[in-house]
Amino acid sequence: MKKKRPPSLRLRLIAAFVFLGVALGPLVSGTMLWVSYTLEEEAVQAVVQERLQHLVSAPQRYVLREHPRHPGVYVLSSSELESLPDRLFSRPDGIHEFDLGHRAWIVGLASLGDGRRYAVLEDISSIERREWVSVFIVLGGAAFSGYVALWFGFYFSRRLLAPLTRLAGRLGQANDLSPELRLAEEGLDEEVLVLARALDEYRRRMSELLVREQEFSADASHELRTPLTVIRQAAELLAEDAALSQRSRRALVRIEHASARMTETIETLLMLAREPETTKEEFDVVEVAREALAHSEFFAEESKIALELLVLAHPLVRGSPAALSVIVANLVRNAIQHAQCHRITVRIETDRLCVEDDGIGMPLGKGGSNGGRGLVMVRRLCEREGWEFRLSCREPIGRGTKIEVVFTAP
Predict the structure, then answer these.
(1) Which of 130, 159, 184, 283 is the most exposed place for a label (fewest CB within 10 A)?
(2) With a threshold of 0.70, does the pTM exceed it?
(3) If DSSP codes are grouped into helix, strand and coil, which group holds residue 103?
(4) Three-state SS string across 133-191, please?
(5) What is 278-410's CATH number, 3.30.565.10, 1.10.357.140, 3.30.230.10, 2.130.10.130?
(6) Tens digits of per-residue pLDDT, 16-26?
(7) Which residues belong to CATH 3.30.565.10 in the chain?
(8) Each residue of 24-42: pLDDT tens digit?
């Protein structure tokens, strides 16, 4: 299952701006409005409570009206008593808020022992209407602030990430690990400067590691060439001895197999140790493949394996013909020694070279690759030349292996 890529840093910055604009801003303003209206209603309730207390203690100081439908109920209010709902006066003593459609009141009720009851009313319909208007204002403000936040998110995310983008561009232009090229420079933001210094240190360590690897590969290859030459010359002299037994000749064939394999490995290591050539020549893939197969025909005959070159096109490729020769020789020799096959076909098409066998195949490892050292070196050579290496096995396992070197990268 393909792992889902996380969203980009710029997208997350834009999302943060939009969240702040759409959610946090209206939330803060809505909370402040709610607190404001709540305090206003509490203030009205406190006024009603205070008036009710004064009314109970000194009713003669107020102009009261007896409710026409509730005898004994005296009301202190500027509203028309006939328009007030009867349920207002059926509440128990205390301070109450009463809502009826678009009207709302705060009523304070108190009863005396002589059967009289006092009521203080304040119409808070205007406060309730402002609350609803505020809700729509907050929603409209959320939409507008979201639009503004989105615009600012696009603008500031580009400005904020510009130093990182420039640093990534400079890093992409640095095709080598030369220590002279420094990513850390004056004028960078502090956080970006820390990242640039870490990248410089990483490039320095990788450069040293690459130099050590190249020096080791070159030294080891040169040291192995001399004894390998001696082995091959000795094998050639022994092959001329007519008195050798069949058992000795089979052993001699194994020696020649091993020396040829070692020669190819040394050539591959030397090629990988050298710096890539800046100027590449154009060559005929068919000619290079035919020459490489000529050196492997003897070993294929000794192993009783049919070696076939199938030419479907004559592609001209810019690159290193020596690299392609080493690749073909390694792939064919690897199939001869490990595939347990009867036929090896090297097929040349318009944009690729394919090596197929009908052997036992190989299980693909994690990521669709095989961990064999020979194939790893071939893969590195392909990457060095800008070619694509593809390995596939026919299902089920045991029906052969197919390896492609694609000259035109997708």
Answers:
(1) 159
(2) no
(3) strand
(4) HHHHHHHHHHHHHHHHHHHHHHHHHHHHHHHHHHHHHHHHHCCCCCCCCCCCCCCCCHH
(5) 3.30.565.10
(6) 777 777 777 77
(7) 278-410
(8) 777 777 777 778 778 888 8
Across 9-33, b (16+ Cβ under 10 Å) vs e yields ebeebbeebbeebbeebbeebbeeb
Cβ-count burial 212-250 (b if 16+ within 10 Å, e if not): eebeebeeebeeeeeebeebbeebeeeeeeeeeeeeeee
Q: Please tell me whether residue 301 adopts helix, strand or coil conformation.
A: helix
Q: How far apart are CA 376 and CA 265, in angstroms?
A: 12
CA–CA separation, 186 and 188 (whole Å): 6
pLDDT digits (tens, 9 = 90+) for 259-292: 777 777 777 777 776 666 656 789 999 999 999 8
